[in-house]
Fold this protein.
Amino acid sequence: MQDVAVIIPAKDEADRIGATVEAALGLPGADLVVVVDDGSSDGTGEAAERAGARVVRHSRNRGKGAAMETGAEAVRLLDDGRDQPRHLLFLDADLAGTAAEAAPLVEPVRAGEADMTIAVFSTTVKLGGHGFVVRLSRDGIRRATGWTATQPLNGQRCLTRAAFEAARPLAAGFGVETALTIDLLRAGFRVTEVEVPLAHRATGTDWHAQVHRARQFRDVARALAVREPAVVTRLDRLRAFRRP
């Protein structure tokens, strides 16, 4: 049954994207891999094409949320004429060969037991940060929904097309995973975690890594801010006041 499309947002991952695509193409039921080259300055798009992916390019970096939406739209167009839309499996570009282990993420969605699965990596890597962004996301999701996520920022997720469309528009940048979880749980969709032996490149401790974590923190905080009841109430009142 060919019922899965793999979507891989990628920026400057020329050294690993080929192996990631090749591994993803070997997943059961995955007959389509779409790589969204999000403004890369290296040969990411070319490497993905050589490995067998369909590539969509952003002329400038637009962020992870936008790349996910672009990839999903490409799949929707390619699904035209199919009886059922493909399930959407999102994978990070730097998984390399471990992407071959992502099949368990699809199984609960295919079986109708979940509307979205979130990966929990069984193999951990030494992280350069101190987990403050993870705590921010986890605590925010718990406040908003009552559910505690093990790895709330994990980008390895499988969704039904219906669940994905219900969550649009996606949150900007690195806030997308946190927002996806909150929005789908609040809408009554079933979300479950699945342990998988995947592994990506760990962020380091240099200034590039610190900037990356700062951007993560900013985007997650923004996604949470508009989903906190008190903030939403104030925004609704402000919008009502501004109406003519």
